[in-house]
Amino acid sequence: MNLAIDIGNTRTKAGLFKEGKILDLKFYDSPLDIVNDSIFIQLAKNAIIGTVVAEMEAFYKELNKVLPTILFTNETKIPIKNC
After folding, report:
1. 18 C-beta neighbours (distance < 10 Å), count
2. Residue 32 dihedral angles phi and psi, to the nearest 5°
3. pTM of this prediction?
């Protein structure tokens, strides 16, 4: 399973996906609450973070200790071309 995290200005959303289908969705008040939800994140093998918040390096490093994590930015290589 893969963990997708969306960090907004007021809420953090996290979803577990398997084969392109969402299996579970949770909402958090803080990104660090996800790291504390060990039962939820242990179900995932990989994670990706998308955020509008400027500084997420500390959270990224903390989550990356638990499972391989990608911080999705404008520089992330993806197989989609935006015209």
Report:
1. 13
2. -65, -20
3. 0.85
Pair 41, 69: CB distance under 8 Å: no
Could you report the average pLDDT of every consecutive run of 10 residues in the chain (83 residues)?
A: 92 94 95 90 93 81 89 82 75
CA distances from 30 to 1, 79, 80 (A): 22, 31, 30
Picking from 11, 79, 1, 78, the residue whose alpha carbon sits closest to that of residue 47 is 1
Burial annotation 35-69 (CB, 10 A radius, 16+ → b, else e): eeeeebbeebeebbbbbeeeebeebbeebeeeeeb
